[in-house]
């Protein structure tokens, strides 16, 4: 029995600061171009005097067929916005302390380097390191990266001292190709790669007030703390502290905190067993802020340097989410601000912590990408929601009020919002899944509609047409075309102690729980959530049970692939750039697969666990048509496609090209023409298999004949029934 909890804007927070609608009187419907051109906000920084701000968006440029970074400046009094720079990449925009300027890592054609941005928009170099290394999905890249095109990188990361007099930074040097023989694990790690990955070293420098650079250390390729900008640089007591990672001969990783006195410039080990983490939020008492506990309420805690804890109370949100705004501490150390994500109806806001009880700034919309003046009295954020395009807003910290300054996406402000409802579903296993229903425009009660579930793990929240969640599944355009769209998160691991223990077993690659329990409580539980959410709408007379589809990429592709080979409910699916859970990945993911399956697929004891859940081994159980859209031809995904076709199940695998012969499209597509075609392919696929529609103008109209053959050869049709947990 499914139970649904309806949530409204800020019912759990007690503070409603909804922003006024700015839609024009002549509103319009969503278009394919709207889906393509939703700007992705990357980074934002307020001016030292609090009168202006700079921010960066990434946008799809149809003319060049590239995703470009745009640096804009907005006057906080008038809202006037100017474009200062377009470049291949702009990241890590920050205010330079003690000046009116900003700094950022920018690729202006010489690789990613560090530049100064003056208050008038002039851009001048700070550090240019010509010996770059490549990040991105390209042959020979130092590290693959999912979010951008192949990117030559000179300056990898940087940090200013609080007075702006000292600069800590990391530069990369590509190593020459090593023609040595390789053995065993070094060979196995390159399976499915078409060329060996590149290697590089990372050099850490400290620049003093006199402008001279001191080399602190040169780090090897295995130090992912340094290579992935997870050094957690801090400045205190006349020292700069940063993390590095050591890897022993057996491959075990250990993070260490280094300390460098500014007076001597000589590094020492401050902590040889530092705790790894993606976020370290500073509190007003000199400690670290975290949210502890499970369930719908969490304890906001500051762990002090001596190990004691300051408890600030229980709240319906958690700080430390990597998608929330970072942490801030005022210059006098008396006030801290941390970004949070709510547990129910997920959205982002801010918690202000002083000696008094913490207070919340936020409301029905999300606040992301925030920055504040040094005193933490004024700030700016990006405000957005499922139905409100992103806008720059100012924050008065004392009163907690917000004021809209300027739109980030003026072209999208004129779109008439679709009716979008936040939901929390409770499935038959008593697991909660949050998400949204996006209703067809002009929905008519009593009429049954086709439906599509879209999932990507936990990214369904109050962000506007977020590509990390929707990928190339144009949710809003599908709703315009008459589909009921369900954006559904998988059940959160922290909702109860038992589910958290299951996820901890998986993430930490232990054997604390048996493989079948891990399978049942994660992926098969995902399927139950999707089925029960759809069933609620079927029972309500909203959805046609014979016209239901499902789509998801990455983590969502795992859920989709399992659902399609366990359930009879989904007549069509689109699975994006995934392959985890397939036997072919075992050599690359041994520890993880040992947890999920109990060993390799060649182990007779583990084989039954593969047979009950590995999608490619259950091809004969599938009934719906499956589209696999790929940025990379993973053998695991090819195996799933081949298994489906061998069982005469309708299936198509589509590989989207990279920028050239030596590169791949990225996991989150970045080439505009690929994004456009992927959305068009998804529309054509679902329209054909769920609605029986053909569009002669579709760029995929030439595929209809092949789809006709697959439909005719299919051994059966989906009957709409739910999955049953395998023995």
UniProtKB/TrEMBL annotation:
Keyword tags: Signal
Peptidase S9 prolyl oligopeptidase catalytic domain segment(s): 475-690
A Pfam family it matches: Peptidase_S9
Source superkingdom: Bacteria
A GO BP annotation: proteolysis
Annotated signal sequence range: 1-23
Entry-linked SUPFAM superfamilies: alpha/beta-Hydrolases, DPP6 N-terminal domain-like
GO molecular function terms listed in the Swiss-Prot or TrEMBL record: serine-type peptidase activity
Protein name: Prolyl oligopeptidase
Taxonomic classification: Bacteria, Pseudomonadati, Pseudomonadota, Alphaproteobacteria, Sphingomonadales
């Amino acid at each position: 029995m499914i139970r649904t909890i309806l949530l409204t804007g800020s019912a759990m927070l007690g503070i409603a600061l909804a922003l006024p609608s700015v839609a024009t009187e002549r509103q319009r419907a969503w278009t394919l171009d709207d889906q393509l051109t939703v700007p992705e906000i990357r980074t934002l920084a307020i001016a030292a005097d609090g009168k202006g701000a700079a921010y960066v968006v990434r946008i799809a440029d149809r003319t060049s067929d590239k995703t470009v970074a745009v640096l804009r400046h907005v006057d906080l009094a008038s809202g006037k916005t100017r474009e200062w720079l377009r470049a291949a990449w702009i990241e890590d925009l920050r205010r330079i302390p003690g000046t009116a300027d900003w700094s950022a890592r920018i690729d202006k054609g010489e690789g990613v380097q560090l530049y100064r941005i003056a208050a008038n928009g002039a851009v001048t170099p700070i550090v240019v390191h010509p010996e770059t290394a490549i990040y991105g999905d390209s042959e020979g890249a130092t590290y693959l990266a999912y979010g951008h095109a192949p990117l030559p990188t000179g300056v990898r990361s940087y940090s200013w001292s609080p007075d702006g007099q000292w600069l800590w930074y990391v530069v990369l040097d590509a190593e020459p190709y090593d023609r040595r023989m390789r053995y065993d694990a070094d060979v196995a790690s390159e399976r499915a790669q078409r060329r060996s990955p590149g290697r590089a070293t990372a050099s850490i420098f400290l620049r003093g007030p006199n402008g001279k650079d001191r080399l602190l250390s040169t780090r090897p390729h295995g130090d992912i703390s340094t290579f992935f900008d997870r050094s957690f640089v801090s400045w205190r007591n006349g020292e700069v502290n940063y993390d590095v990672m050591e890897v022993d001969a057996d491959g075990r990783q250990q993070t260490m905190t280094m300390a460098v006195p500014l007076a001597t410039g000589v590094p020492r080990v401050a902590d040889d067993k530092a705790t790894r983490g993606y976020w370290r939020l500073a509190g007003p008492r000199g400690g670290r802020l975290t949210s502890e506990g499970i369930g719908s309420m969490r304890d906001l805690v500051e762990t002090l340097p001596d190990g004691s804890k300051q408890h600030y109370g229980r709240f319906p949100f958690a700080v430390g989410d990597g998608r929330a705004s970072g942490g801030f501490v005022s210059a006098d150390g008396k006030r801290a601000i941390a970004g949070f994500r709510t547990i129910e109806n997920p959205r982002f806001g801010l918690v202000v912590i002083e000696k008094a009880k913490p207070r919340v700034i936020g409301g029905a919309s999300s606040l992301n990408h925030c920055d504040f003046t040094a005193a933490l009295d004024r700030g700016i954020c990006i405000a957005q929601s499922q139905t409100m395009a992103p806008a720059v807003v100012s924050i008065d910290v004392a009163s907690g009020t917000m004021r809209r300054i300027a739109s980030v996406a003026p072209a999208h402000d004129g779109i008439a919002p679709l009716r979008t409802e936040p939901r929390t579903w409770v499935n038959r296993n008593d697991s909660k899944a949050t998400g949204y229903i996006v209703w067809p425009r002009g929905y008519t009660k009593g009429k049954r509609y086709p439906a599509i579930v879209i999932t990507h793990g936990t990214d369904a929240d109050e962000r506007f047409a977020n590509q990390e969640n929707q990928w190339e599944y144009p949710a809003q355009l599908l709703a315009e075309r008459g589909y009921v769209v369900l954006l559904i998160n998988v059940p959160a691991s922290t909702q109860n102690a038992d589910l958290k223990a299951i996820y901890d077993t998986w993430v930490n690659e232990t054997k604390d729980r048996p493989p079948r329990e891990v399978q049942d409580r994660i992926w098969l539980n995902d399927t139950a959530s999707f089925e029960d959410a759809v069933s609620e709408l079927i029972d309500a007379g909203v959805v046609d049970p014979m016209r239901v589809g499902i789509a998801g990429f990455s983590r969502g592709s795992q859920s989709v692939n399992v659902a399609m080979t366990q359930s009879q409910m989904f007549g069509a699916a689109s699975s994006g750039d995934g392959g985890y859970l397939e036997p072919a990945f075992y050599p690359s993911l041994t520890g993880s697969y040992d947890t999920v399956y109990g060993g390799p697929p060649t182990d007779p004891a583990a084989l039954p666990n593969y047979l009950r859940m590995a999608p490619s081994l259950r091809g004969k159980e599938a009934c719906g048509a499956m589209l696999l859209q790929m940025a990379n031809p993973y053998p695991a995904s090819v195996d799933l496609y081949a298994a489906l076709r061998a069982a005469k199940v309708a299936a198509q695998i589509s590989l989207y090209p990279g920028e050239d012969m030596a590169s791949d499209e990225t996991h989150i597509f970045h080439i505009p023409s690929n994004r456009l075609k992927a959305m068009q392919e998804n529309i054509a696929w679902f329209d054909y298999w769920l609605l029986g529609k053909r569009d002669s103008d579709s760029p995929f109209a030439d595929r209809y004949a092949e789809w006709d053959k697959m439909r005719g050869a299919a051994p059966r049709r989906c009957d709409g029934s739910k999955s049953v947990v395998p023995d």
